[in-house]
Specification:
This protein is an alpha/beta fold and 267 residues long. It has one domain: NAD(P)-binding Rossmann-like Domain (Rossmann fold). 45% of the residues lie in helices and 16% in strands. The strands form two sheets. Strands 5-4-3-6-7-8-9 form a seven-stranded parallel beta sheet, with helices on both faces. A two-stranded antiparallel ribbon has the order 1-2.
């Protein structure tokens, strides 16, 4: 496979390594309209992959498509879907495959880290948080794996979170879901490995996104986190996207069933 190194300065905006094996691969990304998902969409588009992404943020998603389409080998395509509705998710995936071909890479990125108090959790809120942060990852994987099995290859990346490894406050249901994702990743890797499908999890640290800066990462919080990190720099979405691209490339052909941190050594 061909790997070329681009201008190192480009690493501040998009992943700087080109993986020849990603060219023309059909990638589906959930939650691709903003934040980390946006960086992943852009990263794959720069690789010459065929990118489809799902989100509920319509305005931001349409703007992303408009920004990336000029000059792209394949302009990314956006489909609105509420991932809590599994029937709608399955139909959306079928429609995406009918339009753009079988899914070869699935990035299960979509999630929501709203804070909550233990005493205020109801059964309804529990079910909603599991639907938002855990259930759709399995059913998207199930649907995408059908095409991957036929092809004899495929990659699934599930997004976990450093929050449960650190036991951060006011996130018990989010952490429950994210811990479950790592267990599910191991199980799926075992079940699908004989079909040539690799399954891994990525564990981002305190990634700087517009949502995190607005809601959770105050200047004091950022300073405390930097003091605890081995590398005293903020983790950016492109840092996460860079690992995603590697794990999805043929260069990572022997990597499966594991979880990989992108956290600047946050302990």
């Amino acid at each position: 496979m061909t790997i070329d190194t681009l201008n190192p300065d480009a690493a501040t905006d998009t992943a700087a390594t080109v993986y020849g094996s990603l060219k023309d691969r059909h990638v589906l990304i959930t939650g691709g309209g903003t934040g980390i998902g946006e960086a992943i969409v852009e990263g794959f588009a720069r690789q010459g992959a065929k990118v489809s992404f799902i989100d509920i943020a319509e305005e931001a998603s349409h703007k992303l498509v408009e920004r990336l389409t000029p000059g792209s080998r394949h302009g990314p395509t956006f489909t609105r879907c509420d991932l809590r509705n599994i029937a709608a998710l399955e139909q959306t995936i079928a429609s995406i495959e009918a339009a753009n071909g079988p899914i070869e890479i699935l990035i299960n990125n979509a999630a929501n880290d709203d804070r909550h108090q233990v005493g205020a959790i109801t059964p309804e809120y529990w079910d909603n948080r599991m639907a938002v942060n855990l259930r759709h990852l399995f059913f998207a994987s199930q649907a995408a794996a059908r095409s991957m099995r036929k092809a004899g290859r495929g990659v699934i990346i599930n997004f976990s979170s450093i929050s449960w490894h650190l036991a951060l406050p006011e996130l018990v249901l989010y952490q429950t879901a994210k811990a479950g994702i790592e267990g599910m990743t191991r199980g799926l890797a075992r079940e699908l490995g004989a079909d040539g499908i690799r399954v891994n999890a990525i564990i981002p640290g305190a990634v700087r996104t517009a949502r995190q800066d607005l809601l959770w990462q105050s200047p004091d919080d950022v300073q405390r986190t930097l003091e605890q990190q081995c590398i005293k720099e903020r983790v950016m979405p492109v840092d996460v996207a860079a690992l995603v691209l590697f794990l999805c490339s043929d260069d990572a052909r022997a990597c499966t069933a594991h979880s990989y941190f992108v956290d600047a050594g946050w302990a």
